[in-house]
Write a structure and sequence with these properties.
- The chain is mainly α.
- It has a single domain, classed as Rossmann fold (3-Layer(aba) Sandwich), CATH 3.40.50.
- Helices cover 50% and strands 12% of the residues.
- It is globular and about 35 Å long.
Amino acid sequence: MLEASDGDHALECLAAIGGRLPDVVIADRRMPRRDGLALHAELAERHPALAARFILASGDPGEPGVVAFARATGCPVVAKPFQLPEIARLAARLAAHATSH
């Protein structure tokens, strides 16, 4: 598991671990420097398979930008505050889907 303080830090962490990418990325919509939407866009460029295993957490899941993101990417959006079992189920489903393809 990697933990990053913002989207730029997440990209730095991914670069530091080289080719071993995490099974799933969970990012907040609002983060300093690079938010969750911008992080996903960068992952889509650098690591498309990882971008497909992305969960966006948002305090306002009905925000037009979040709704547009979910429609365009098919990535799940979870409303904050969320329960750990909810995120764990989503992450397990995305990781399992990735390994089956």
